[in-house]
Amino acid sequence: RLERHCGEAHTVSIPCTERHDALYVVGALDEAMELRGMRYHPIDIETSVIRAHKSVTECAVFTWTNLLVVVVELDGSEQEALDLVPLVTNVVLEEHYLVVGVVVVVDIGVIPINSRGEKQRMHLRDGFLADQLDPIYVAYNM
């Protein structure tokens, strides 16, 4: 326990913030990805990608040989798959300053989710490496 003074109140709890401080809870440390010497939480990138287009129903990201891989579930025509690639790469670059190495567009339900509703990113990565995803479109931006 650490005793701290916050403003006028004396507290024993952690964390304590002053008037201009903020506490951000971003996700579990074991889920964090390290790219270009920085730590990124997958949910931040995934949320940006989902907001990029109305036909994107789900998204998952992981790293593969120091490349960022973005898997996008598409609820739309296969023609829209080509349109998603520049949207995905641009939103990730603009909001997170990261270059996407691979964009994989898949059908709905391909991204594995466990019974608690959590994305199984490592299972998805294993499926990608084993060429088992049956993608609609894959773009390698190397």
From TrEMBL:
<dbReference type="Pfam" id="PF23024">
    <property type="entry name" value="AMP-dom_DIP2-like"/>
</dbReference>
<protein>
    <recommendedName>
        <fullName>AMP-binding enzyme C-terminal domain-containing protein</fullName>
    </recommendedName>
</protein>
<dbReference type="InterPro" id="IPR045851">
    <property type="entry name" value="AMP-bd_C_sf"/>
</dbReference>
<dbReference type="InterPro" id="IPR025110">
    <property type="entry name" value="AMP-bd_C"/>
</dbReference>
<comment type="similarity">
    <text>Belongs to the DIP2 family.</text>
</comment>
<feature type="domain" description="AMP-binding enzyme C-terminal">
    <location>
        <begin position="31"/>
        <end position="133"/>
    </location>
</feature>
